Amino acid sequence: MISREEALAAITSPGARFEIRTEIVRGERLPVYANRERSLGSLVRSSARFGSAEYLVDANQRLTFAGHHAAVAGLAAGLRSEYGVGKGDRVAICSANNAEWIIVFWATVSLGAIAVGMNSMWAAPEVAHGVGLTRPKVIFADAPRRGLIGDVAVPVLSVEEDLPALIGRHSGSALPETSLPEAAVDEDDPAVILFTSGTSGRAKGATHSHRNVLAAMWYILLGDAVAAQMGMPSPPDRRFLLTSPLFHITSLHNLAVPRLAVGDTAVIYTGKFEIDRVLALIEAERVTNWGAVPTMVSRLVRHPGRAKYDLSTLRFLSVNSAPSSPALKDQVRTALPAAGQALVTTYGLTESSTAATVAAPLDLLDDPDTVGGPIPTMQVEIRDAAGHLVPDGTEGEIWLRGAQMMLGYWDDPAATAASSAPHGWFRTGDIGTMNGGRLRVSARRSDLILRGGENVYPAEVEFALSTHPAVSECAVFGVPHADLGQEVAAIVVVDAGDAVTGHAVTGHAVTADDLAAHALARLARYKVPSRWLLTADPLPRNATGKVIRPQAAAMLAGRFGQTAV
After folding, report:
1. Would you say 64 and 55 are in contact if contact means Cβ atoms under 8 Å apart?
2. Cβ distance 117 to 246 under 8 Å?
3. For residue 321, what pLDDT is reported?
4. What is the pLDDT of residues 117-146, one digit of tens each?
5. Please, are residues 163 and 157 in contact by the beta-carbon 8 Å criterion?
6. In a domain, 289, yes or no
7. CATH of the domain at 207
8. Are 484 and 295 a contacting pair, CB within 8 Å?
9. Residues 6+ apart with CB under 8 A from 196
10. How much of the chain exceeds pLDDT 70, in percent?
11. Would you say 406 and 208 are in contact if contact means Cβ atoms under 8 Å apart?
């Protein structure tokens, strides 16, 4: 069997299906896939060839590629004729995972419009911010989230009733206006806005072009081609389990989009994550592939009743979205030998559209802490504070460059400029080291908390808590959690003169439960602290007035016996 490097060289060489060549991309010479599509809409138009094969399966329906094509065409026609949606307009999706989410996405990008994937776990103020920032022409929302949107000067269509009715009014006709449109878009036109938590306390809209999403898709398909070249072809009738939210690149760019391109099935898990329901779904739907966050994988390998489920079809498992320990990887290899032998892990972020690095199974066996080397079209470097390259083994900031990097943050030139560097480089803010072409990540965006695969920025939580009248100041940290990786912890300082009695503050009589309720009204539930330290002592600050976070973290460690970060 040839090596991965040899396989990769063969299938990306001139004239090969995955040929990589250098082209000018937004003013910079970058490696790109020579045979790529030029728009996302072209993927939908060509997908009808898969006919009666299943594309989307969820709790309510089984949708073939032909049925999906017809639904997308009908919805695109309806959005165009009834709501005037066209190139550059935004269509927001505020819904839990379901097949309808994906139909709206494809109909939107087919029109040359921009799909806005809103976080389905947001609280009302966060939803308002997302709507105000992107100014959509139409919003699709499911029942639990329509109440969060409130009164807006935008049509809000229900996923349950309005969406199928709109499709029905424009389907099954031979009229030209009901056919799937072929919008005139440039590769570098925006196609998707996905939100990433902001260090300033507000979510930012990472804006991906058609080129970005297609580059992500080609990277996913390249992995299949490399395996086949090495003599490990993919099994027929692949079925991919979709468990992460569709407003994440993990489920949208890395799963829903590539499956449409090659005729595979996406099995959509709906509802709160419950390991027994997940295992039953893997068994019932004969799932072959699953990309999961570490918390999900941890629950699988630790589940005492795992043996009662037939998981023999699960042949490929990837652990993404948050760091995973070497111990967890070993547990996967023991619990699921077949999938464990194909275990991979990646490093990437919303701004990179997909993985920036990948660690193959042999990489992880050789170096369990690595997140691998750069994917073929990505450049990864470690720079110092002045922006200079550092030697191997030296810690510094991770910089990325490639055709898959986002266009910028929607309507936020200041944030875009702050993360940008000359010649198309993106400053991640993450800290890591490079050794022999392999990356290790030391810290994710300094203070970032990774709770069950979800990003939580302390500044955002601190801002919400600071609006409570009893709060003088506060600091938020991540503390270790056996299942979630990290949980959110808060130190809350009450107004001067108040005294602390247990968890209650005399005068305001505020409790941790009060503060949690206050935060929950403003933030997604996963961002609300679950550990609290209420105190009358001021936070430690340096001469410039900044909180000395290591000293503040030590206060939490003293209370809970854990090291905060």
Report:
1. yes
2. yes
3. 67
4. 999 999 999 999 999 999 999 999 999 999
5. yes
6. no
7. 3.40.50.12780
8. yes
9. 203, 204, 206, 349, 350, 351, 455
10. 92
11. yes
Residue 516 belongs to domain spanning: 450-560
**Cα 286–291–293 angle (5° rounding)?**
125
Interacting residues of 494 by C-beta distance below 8 A, sequence separation 6+: 470, 471, 472, 500, 505, 507, 508, 510, 534, 535, 536
Q: Which segment, 208-222, 459-473, 484-498, is predicted with the most confidence on average? A: 208-222
pLDDT higher than 60, residue 331: yes
Same domain, 523 and 402: no
Residue 520, phi then psi, degrees to nearest 5: -65, -25
Q: Which two tokens stand for residue 361?
A: 């199974």
Residue 162: count of CB within 10 angstroms of its CB: 16
Contact criterion met (CB below 8 Å) for 484 and 323:
no
Check whether residue 440 and residue 466 sit in a common domain: no
- What proportions of the chain, in percent to the nearest 5, are helix, strand and coil? 35, 25, 40
- Sequence-distant (6+) residues with CB within 8 A of 238 are 264, 265, 288, 289
Cα dist. 450→248, 294, 323 in Å?
A: 14, 10, 9
Tell me which amino acid residue 161 is: E
The dihedral region occupied by 507, where left means phi > 0, alpha psi between -120 and 50, and beta the remainder, is: left
Is residue 528 situated within a structural domain? yes
Q: Kindly tell me if the per-residue pLDDT of 195 is higher than 60.
A: yes
**Do the beta carbons of residue 524 and residue 553 sit within 8 Å?**
no
**CA angle (561, 562, 565) in 5-degree steps:** 145
Q: Are 398 and 354 in contact (CB under 8 A)?
A: no
- Give mean pLDDT, residues 214-233: 91
The answer to whether residues 433 and 455 belong to one domain is no
Q: Does 326 have pLDDT greater than 80? A: no
Torsion of CA 386, 392, 398, 400, to 10 degrees: 100
* Separation CA 63–CA 76 (nearest Å): 17
Say what the pLDDT of residue 499 is.
41
**Secondary structure E strands in 362-503:** 373-374, 378-383, 396-402, 408-409, 420-421, 425-435, 438-443, 449-451, 454-456, 471-481, 485-494, 500-501
- CA distances to 50, 263, 424 from 38, rounded to whole Å, are 21, 19, 21
Q: What is the pLDDT of residue 498?
A: 45
Contact 23, 36 (CB under 8 A): no
Note the pTM of the prediction, 2 decimals.
Answer: 0.86
Please check whether residue 302 is in contact with residue 326, taking contact to mean a CB–CB distance below 8 angstroms: no
Per-residue tokens: 93 = 């999706």
- Number of domains observed in the structure of the chain: 3
Contact assessment for residue 319 and residue 347, using Cβ atoms and an 8 Å cutoff: no
Q: Is residue 403 located within the same domain as residue 508? A: no
Residue 308 lies in a domain: no
Other beta carbons within 10 angstroms of residue 109's beta carbon come to: 28
How many secondary structure helices (H) and strands (E) does the chain include? 18, 30
The pLDDT of residue 368: 87
**Last-in-domain residue among 164, 195, 211:** 211
Degrees (nearest 5) of the Cα angle 518, 523, 527? 105
The per-residue pLDDT for 447 is 78
User: Which residues lie across from 239 on neighbouring strands?
Assistant: 265
Reported confidence tier of residue 289, pLDDT bands at 50, 70, 90: very high
